[in-house]
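User: I'm curious whether this sequence folds into something compact or stays loose and floppy. Could you predict its structure so I can see for myself?
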Amino acid sequence: MFDHIKEDISIVFERDPAARTRLEILTTYPGVHALIIHRFSHALWKADWFWLGRLLSHLGRWLTGVEIHPGATIGRRVFIDHGMGVVIGETAVIGDDCTLYHGVTLGGTSWNKGKRHPTLEAGVVIGAGAKVLGPITVGEGAKIGSNAVVVKDVPANATAVGIPARILEEEKSKQRETAAQKIGFAAYAVGNDENDPMIKAIHSLLDHATKQEQAISDLQAQLARLNMNTETDAEVGEAFDVQHNTGKPE
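Assistant: Here's the prediction. I'll summarize afterward.
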């Protein structure tokens, strides 16, 4: 347990450039305090000291603003930045190296017993105010945008944004960016998660431009092949042309 606590403190230096000393982290970071308290309350919960575990977690909530049920399973090197308003349910599972920002909820959607909270695999990052609800799985290395509401599984290394959350098409985003650069258009402050009709229209135009470029490229390739075939046919014709070979009329 104490090794986990040391890691919880050390990982802050990697993910928060404002961190200066271990003493500062240990005394002024509520996310670290919440995790330390949870390590003890979870141990009590596993030992069937349920009331005492709940009491300790309740005190931790009062002190830090972070509510973590003692039954939740939290891995190593997890970082809760700022922490205020974070809620983690009883059957939630958080893998190693995950990062949660303030206002995140790992909640349930059912009153039934059993698994009813999310599972976060290793390396997941959840933005401020996001809600991940139900017994779903967020794959390794995935990212959840701020204020997103996630109610379905998220694949590994994907990015989910919006209400309800949808998976961003990274390849299409790259194509749009390339098309915008070619026509001299800078999509400044245009995000993939926007619902503005103008942004949707711009995205549609960029997608259309990309399709046109691909069609033109295909046509050029076909024309090039036709020219090669024409030249080859002409050479073959000359080779069988008696007049051309002898230079004398028949």
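Summary: The first strand starts at residue 67 and ends at 68. Residues 197-239 form the longest helix (43 residues).
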